[in-house]
Design brief:
Length: 58
């Protein structure tokens, strides 16, 4: 049986967490400043989950 910590360490969980953080951050940015340039989008896509979450809260 898998524990919660085992689940959180799976690749699937990490990918879903990243996608959720990216989607949340992009929605916040679009509400605050409108669209973003392609260059900025590329840079945002390279951020870690923690950095995306911090950016969304900033």
């Amino acid at each position: 049986m898998f524990s919660i910590s085992d689940l959180k360490n799976t690749r699937y969980y990490q990918e879903v967490r990243y996608e959720e953080a990216l989607n949340y951050t992009m929605r916040i940015i679009e509400r605050r400043i409108g669209g973003v340039s392609q260059d900025l989008q590329v840079k945002i896509n390279k951020l870690s989950v923690e950095d995306l979450e911090n950016l969304g809260l900033a």
